[in-house]
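tool=predict chain=A
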Amino acid sequence: MRKVADCREYPSETKCTLALAGEPEEVVRATTELAVRMHGHADGLELREQIGSGLQDEPTQLA
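tool=predict ok
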């Protein structure tokens, strides 16, 4: 199942509205890059674990 990380779920000075979806490893990697480059976080195991634990299942779309 695809996972989603939604910046709107976390407090942010930048008021970021991005949401990233995909396989869990992809989402953690991309969200970590976003957190470091745009939000000033330091990359590390703790950040990646926090991101991974906050992933949500992507809602299924009805056709």
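The chain has a mean pLDDT of 92. The chain has two helices and three strands.
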